[in-house]
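Annotated sample (chain length 366).
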Amino acid sequence: GRGPYGQHGQQPQQVSNQARLANVTLKSLPFYEHHGALLQPSSLLAKGTGRFQEAQFTFVLTVQQANDIASNRDIRATTKVNYLHQVQLRFCPLDTTKEQGDEFPPSICVQVNGKMCPLPNPIPTNKPNVEPKRPPKPIDLTPLCKLSPTLPNTVNVKWAADQGKSWVIAIYLVEKLSSEQLLDRLVQKGTRQSEFTRELIKKKLNDEGDEIATTNLKVTVACPLGKMRMSNPCRPTSCDHLQCFDASLFLQMNERKPTWQCPVCDSPALYQNLMVDGYFLDVIKAKELPDEENEIILNQDGSWHPVPKDDSEEVKKKEETENENLSMVDLSDDEGGSSAAGKKAAAAAAPAVASAPTEVECIDIE
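Output written by the structure step:
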C-alpha cells in the first residue's frame, strides 16, 4: 500500500494547467502526523525551453482544517506563536520507483499569497560550478496562509529547469509531534518479549561456527549515546546486535537533526522499527544490579548476572594506573595524554556487542 504521504485526500483546486498528479510516495516524517493532502504530489512541469520556470498552485482549507490550525497553537511565554497543526510544503525528485526523501529543486523560490516564503539556507560547497544545496526538510507555510474556508491560498514556485531531472511539489496538513510524544507512542506499542532476546543470547553464545568457544559475554546497560544508564533500552527490529540505546535520547537527537541511524551499527533505525527491549528493561529494574554498576555478564543459558565486584575493581585500578602512567610519560601535551587515556578507558569499557555482530562481539573471559 501507499505510505501516508501518498494517500489521496481533498482534491485541490488549481489555477494553473501546469499541475499534473505524480504517482510519487514521499517518505513519512515521524515528527509530523499526516492529517490529509491539500495538494496531492504534482509534477513541476517546465513550459518551453527556458532555464527558469514558474508554476502556480492553489488550495482551500475546509472549515474543520482551518479550525484545527487556529485552535492548536503553542503560546507558551518562552516561545513565539507556533502552530501545532501546520500546512506543510514538500519537494522531491520525480521518481516513482521508491519512496522519496525531501529535496529542493535548484534556484528554488516560493511565494505564498504574494509573500516570500523563507527557505533553509543553502549549505556552502567548495566544488566549482556546483550550486549549494539547501538542507532537505519540509517547510511550514502556516504563518503565510489564509486560515479561512472561503479564501483560496496561492503558492507560486520558481525554479531552474534541470536537464534529465524532474520535480514534484506536495502540500499536506500535518500535526507537529515532540520527542516526548513519540517516546510515549513507542512505549505504548509494548516491549519486545524478553524471551526473544534470551534466545538471541543463547544463539550467539552457542554458535558452533565460532572458532573461539564462548561461555559468557560482557555487555553494558549504559546508553552508547549518553554513557548513562538507559531508561528505555531499545533497538530496531532490523538490527541483529544485542546492544541497545536509550529511546528518549535517540528521539531527542533526531528531533534536532533527523538521521534515523543506529548509534551501535550505523544501519537505518527507522522510528516504525524501534522497540523497547523487555529483557534489558528487566535487567535495569532488577534489584541485583547495583546502582553504580552498568556492566553485566550474559550467560550461555540466556541468564545474566552483575560483573563480580573484584573484576570491576581490578578494571578500575588498571584504568587508573594507565592514566597515571600516561600522565607521567607525556606531561608536555595534556591534550594528547588525556585523549590517549580516554581511548584506552573507552576500549576497556566498550561493550563487545557494540561492534560488528558476527565478528568481535564475544569475549571468552574464562
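Annotation: The helical segments are 63-71, 179-188, 194-205, 247-256, 278-285, 309-329, 334-349.
Annotation: The longest strand covers residues 32-44.
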